[in-house]
Design brief:
By secondary structure, the chain is α/β, with parallel strands linked by helices. It contains 16 helices and 17 strands.
Amino acid sequence: MGSERRPDRKAGSVWQELYDKDTHDRCRVLFALNTVGAGRSTTMLWETKPPLPHSAEPRPWISEQETAATHLERNLQEIDAMCATGLIAARVQVLVCEPIPGVWTDWMDSMLPNCGGKADPMTKKDGGKNDANVEDRASPVQVVVTANAKTADVCHDLKSGFMEQRMQDLVLSPPYLTDKNVDPSKLDPADKTTHPDLVSSDDHDLYVAMKWSTLVTVRSVNSFLQASADLAIAAVSADNQSPMDKDDGDGVTVVLSSAPSSPYLIPSFVRVSYVSEENNKVAKWRMHGDFFHPAAWEICKDSFDMSWIPGSLSGSKGVTPACHNDKDCGQWWVYFAEEQMPTTPEVYANEVTPPLVQGGSNYIWMLTERQRQEMVKVKVCVHAAGDDKSKKDQCGDFPQAVIPLGDLESFLMNFSPNTALGKKHVSSRFPGYSRAEEREKDREAVKERKQLKDQEDIEKALFDYTIYPSALFHKDATIKAARARDFVLTGAKRDPDAVGPQKVKSSYYDVTITKPREATSAWCQAISRKGLCTLYADYFRSFVDDSCLEACGMRKNWSKIERVTDEL
């Protein structure tokens, strides 16, 4: 999935300068960091002073709500830990609107010693006396000023979408940025024509674009790569190359293939934050009194559908099939039917610069090199077509956002400043917009029944605010998938008066208080929530133990319902 071009690791190369004697090949990851809006209150982050590099002195207390420095530091520590594994070569491209003081560059460089940054002098024999300045050597950090004097104000405007567009341009590096007359037939998407001094112009295997307020983790990177491998192997599987018969279509199965008509899917992310007692009280009511739970506000239960993708399981040692001629082998995926709807100001920025992936996020997104190349092909084709709609239709669709059900929590990205929760969405721009009429009918029905009489605050909490806990997201997705499969299996024989599942159910969620969950299903659910279905994918996909297949989203037909006859 990475670049076929491998780095120059000879003596005197940048690689040798960054990693010294450790010259074996690594997975090259570019982190593009959008820092617009980073600061303390009304003061921009770069107008304050960073901590001293490698200092052992006590630091002044800094509130999480006041500054972006703690978020930036935590991200750099996580990226440095990735380099410390010896498997990842990370470069960080910090995108700013105006030049920043050199002390910040020195500090960020010192936070990445395992990636080639300045090491702690106390760990060196010479005390760091021979260390070159960051300007005179290769550094894992590059600060890129994306605006000029005329566009600086627009860049600082969070509603403008300016930096989101710059971030997409730097990561994709489409050739029409430097040459407007690009011939799509002669295009090599692996070639980048952006300025060679930009780190993003180098060849990389994985691209991570994110806003300063997120937290990228090894878990999220690993899960994205595993999900991308799963989708890649499904597309090239020999079992999926023949088109699905009309009689086989069940409304939930999506077959990927190498044909141009096949949907192009890319794993995407949803941001979550922690609902706490400090938030608006309507947000607390929406959570039914449970605080400090990660919750999303850009999606709701109507924002997604569930799809079963046959063969979407990749084994060990690269993109290899884990399903061997088994038609019921595959994985359940969350398929975004709507665009994610943030609150102001990001909702306006998304209208100017839509996310690269339909249903995806501008807040954090990832692409492998192969995915980047496919997107460049489409972008160049659309650019060459101009206003000709017929030519644009031949360019192919833009990718669609999906998340594997068995590893859902790994794609819920932590948003540290608690500023979004408890805020109203802009009118007509809210999660569930595709079912706005049904939502309004539900609200009218509640008023007619007087279920919330004299409780306007609770009514607002239920209908005007979106607080969608990640645990509820997992439950809704599982129930949707199980119900969809239940409808397929019952077919014409389905009892129209029956409530709930009739043939198959979720063994974990379809229980009552009088029938507590058995230990194994609860244990498997905990494994799924902690991302262990992916971390130990080699074991779970060997199928030697099928205890946790359902919790890991790998059982097509869920659990059969055992009918109990009343003998009394």
